[in-house]
């Protein structure tokens, strides 16, 4: 009897907790039950930590050249044939031989060159968070070199370059979505709430932007950009143009929602009380589908990332010396290069992983925000 009473009391407490919870609490509780979305959430936290602290995580300077051109990735080992098992991981150095036919370098492991990996070692100097000068890195070697993802055609460390590329590629998604959100919120809100000529003008602008062919437009943009522009200017313009084409879908979604809500009783009551148009839209109408907007923004970020990667890959977006995943993939355009040096495609793995994680996160948020989903 006591066990049954405790079970009944526990059930009543859970029900009371649900009844008293806010909408955002209910969404969070439901989101936590979506395992794939939670995994994606923590993976994206790691990605953005890498983007913020890429200098700290990179063991070598991504712009530093070396004699090891197209060197394969070094394997992390714990076992040495001479000394046996080692608690401290290490990598073997390279032994370079020359192919007598193609005259290309052939890299083999040099078991006599053993470089131990240490944590929090000193290396090249940088500014942590752009503020604090330091030379401490997460891991590295005190003597020798370490190329976990191999090197490129100039002997630069691919692992460090991919870590640096994470910052640009992921920040383009966030900045671009933020600009798209502001444009879509303002223009879509005015179109749906005001109606009439304003609605017609905004919808025709959206129709024109949607109908523009993107690839020829980007080719024209690449030809128009002055060659002496700094990488910062090119990055800024790339983000702006991606945002110009990204706000149209969100604006039409907001317009449709507001059209269905502007004749509701609570909107009419707010209008009769003298509330301004901006207050009615921001304080009374948008919170009604704020969860849907969040889901839409989450799913729009991977589109921005893919857009920057594709444009940079084609050479009409960001250009060296800027480091992004798309810029790094420019070196993998040649089939021969991919066949001989497959590690040049490693940035593609990070692009696919980031896009998948954002999609999984968006699916989880969509299910959590849907009151009718189980």
Give the SSE map.
Blueprint: H1 2-20, H2 23-32, H3 35-52, H4 54-57, E1 77-80, E2 84-98, E3 105-128, E4 132-141, H5 158-194, H6 196-211, H7 214-224, H8 231-261, H9 265-272, H10 277-285, H11 290-314, H12 325-329, H13 335-340, H14 346-369
Antiparallel strand pairs: 1-2, 2-3, 3-4
Helix pairs in contact: 2-14, 3-5, 3-14, 5-6, 5-8, 5-11, 6-8, 8-11, 9-10, 11-14
Briefly say what this structure is:
The chain has helices at residues 2-20, 23-32, 35-52, 54-57, 158-194, 196-211, 214-224, 231-261, 265-272, 277-285, 290-314, 325-329, 335-340, 346-369; strands at residues 77-80, 84-98, 105-128, 132-141. By secondary structure, it is an alpha+beta fold. The protein has a four-stranded antiparallel β-sheet with strand order 1-2-3-4.
């Amino acid at each position: 009897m006591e066990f049954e009473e405790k079970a009944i009391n526990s059930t009543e407490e859970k029900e009371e907790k649900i009844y008293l919870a806010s909408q955002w609490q209910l969404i969070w509780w439901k989101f936590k039950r979506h395992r794939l979305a939670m995994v994606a959430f923590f993976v994206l936290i790691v990605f953005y930590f890498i983007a913020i602290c890429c200098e700290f995580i990179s063991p070598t300077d991504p712009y530093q050249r070396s004699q090891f051109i197209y060197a394969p990735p070094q394997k992390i080992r714990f076992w040495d044939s001479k000394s046996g098992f080692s608690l401290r991981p290490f990598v073997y150095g390279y032994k370079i031989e020359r192919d007598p036919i193609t005259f290309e370098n052939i890299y083999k492991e040099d078991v006599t060159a053993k470089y131990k990996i240490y944590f929090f070692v000193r290396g090249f100097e940088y500014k942590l968070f752009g503020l604090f000068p330091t030379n401490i890195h997460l891991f590295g070697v005190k003597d020798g070199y370490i190329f976990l993802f191999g090197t490129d055609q100039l002997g630069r460390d691919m692992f460090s370059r991919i870590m640096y590329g994470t910052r640009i590629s992921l920040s383009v998604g966030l900045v671009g979505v933020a600009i798209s959100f502001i444009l879509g919120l303002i223009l879509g809100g005015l179109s749906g709430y005001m109606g009439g000529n304003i609605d017609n003008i905004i919808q025709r602008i959206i129709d024109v932007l949607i109908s523009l062919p993107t690839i020829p437009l980007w080719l024209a943009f690449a030809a128009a950009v002055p060659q002496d522009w700094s990488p910062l200017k090119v990055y800024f313009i790339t983000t702006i143009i991606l945002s110009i084409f990204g706000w149209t879908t969100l604006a039409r979604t907001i317009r449709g929602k507001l059209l269905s809500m502007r004749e509701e009783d609570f909107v009419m009551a707010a209008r009769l009380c003298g509330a301004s148009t901006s207050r009615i839209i921001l304080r009374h109408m948008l919170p009604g589908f704020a969860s849907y907007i969040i889901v839409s923004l989450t799913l729009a970020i991977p589109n921005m990332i893919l857009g920057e990667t594709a444009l940079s890959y084609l050479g009409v977006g960001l250009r060296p010396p800027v480091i992004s995943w798309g810029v790094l993939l420019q070196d993998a355009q040649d089939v021969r290069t991919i066949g001989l040096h497959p590690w040049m495609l490693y940035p593609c793995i990070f692009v696919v992983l980031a896009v998948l994680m954002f999609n999984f996160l968006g699916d989880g948020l969509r299910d959590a925000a849907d009151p009718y989903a189980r």
